[in-house]
Amino acid sequence: MTFNVGVIRGDGIGPEIVTEAVKVLDAIGAKYGHEFKYTEILMGGCSIDACGEPLTDDAIKAALSSDAVLMGSIGGNTSTSPWYKLPADKRPEAGLLKLRKSLNLFANLRPAYLYEELKEACPLRDDIIGDGFDMMIMRELTGGLYFGERSTVEEDGQLVARDSLTYSEGEIRRIAKRGFDIAMKRRKKVTSVDKANVLDSSRLWRKIVEEVAKDYPEVEYEHMLVDNCAMQLVKNPRQFDVILTENMFGDILSDEASMVTGSIGMLSSASLNDTKFGLYEPSGGSAPDIAGKGIANPIATILSAAMMLRYSFDLDAEANAIEKAVKLVLKDGYRTIDIMPRDGSTVKQVGTVEMGDLIVERL
Ligand code: IPM
Ligand code: MG
């Protein structure tokens, strides 16, 4: 089969980590007899530099005409990069938000899994780690604070900034269904996270989640306040299976979940709509401080490519093969700098390209 993959390399470490994921895809293609055709798409700071805006209409069209899009990361240093002197809607992140919205990618899946081999990179105590944990953060991606009306105006002699947080029943229902569907394929537990003791949008969230839960009698579900969830992720991450939450809470909690699994360099993600199309990207950012040094961890992007094979192309065996190859490399003791063990036990530190090569070898 031939698959058309849009490729957004982006900024910072983006190009380096995407190169490794493409290398892995090509190896899969050769082994299983598929052809992946790539279309390069500009987005983020590199698009600002080349076209004057973070995402052009042509770029959106190119993404739309692909079967799926693989992305690295976008953005730069928010204190020093000239991109952040531009108005908010012209900055790199605006491109990503526009792409998510234009393609209606409302469901963001972020699996946080502790590899046996990475227990030593996990900052939590051994008695908390226990036999490890495996959770899926299901983040709503096209609503809430990220897409509400914004303004900064002068009132009574001072500046006042406003961001509005809106959710409709329909937006909540469709993500809740996705969350429960995924739970059915996992350990059948959903923790819906909100701030219902303060926010109206959270109270509606709870009501709709309860309605949706009725259609999934096999799934055990609970509500948890977001501040408590942030604490529970460190106190007892083993209690979680699917964490279902709104846009900004999901952004924050997924970074936290990634760190308890050892490193954000391991956390893949899939952003899906109602079709087979998806945008696949590591959950981490462009890490401008280490860009171009050849030390970034490409595993999150490689695992995102595996998610692409599974969710957009229905290539389960191929996705499993990538995940297995990643495990084998870790088992063989190879680590990028971000996942070095805290106890100094003997492993071999490798760079971005070497990590990609090692994974390809094991395919
Ligand atoms: C993420 C990122 C983005 C987000 C930024 C770059 C806009 O942090 O994908 O988690 O907040 O959604
Ligand atoms: Mg984030």
UniProtKB/TrEMBL annotation:
Catalyzes the oxidation of 3-carboxy-2-hydroxy-4-methylpentanoate (3-isopropylmalate) to 3-carboxy-4-methyl-2-oxopentanoate. The product decarboxylates to 4-methyl-2 oxopentanoate. It holds the Pfam family Iso_dh. InterPro entries: IsoCit/isopropylmalate_DH_CS, IsoPropMal-DH-like_dom, Isopropylmalate_DH. NAD(+) binds at residues 285-297. It is found in: Cytoplasm. The record marks 146, 195 as: Important for catalysis. The keyword Oxidoreductase applies. Mg(2+) binds at residues 227, 251, 255. Keywords: Amino-acid biosynthesis, Branched-chain amino acid biosynthesis, Cytoplasm, Leucine biosynthesis, Magnesium, Manganese, Metal-binding, NAD, Oxidoreductase. One of its GO terms (cellular component) is cytosol. It comes from Pseudobutyrivibrio xylanivorans DSM 14809. Its EC number is 1.1.1.85. This is 3-isopropylmalate dehydrogenase. It catalyses: (2R,3S)-3-isopropylmalate + NAD(+) = 4-methyl-2-oxopentanoate + CO2 + NADH. The lineage of its organism: Bacteria, Bacillati, Bacillota, Clostridia, Lachnospirales. Coiled coil: none annotated. Substrate binds at residues 100, 110, 139, 227. Gene3D superfamilies: Isopropylmalate Dehydrogenase. Residues 4-359 form the Isopropylmalate dehydrogenase-like domain. GO terms for biological process: L-leucine biosynthetic process. Pathway: Amino-acid biosynthesis; L-leucine biosynthesis; L-leucine from 3-methyl-2-oxobutanoate: step 3/4. Its cofactor is Mn(2+); Mg(2+). Homodimer. Belongs to the isocitrate and isopropylmalate dehydrogenases family. LeuB type 1 subfamily. One of its GO terms (molecular function) is NAD binding.
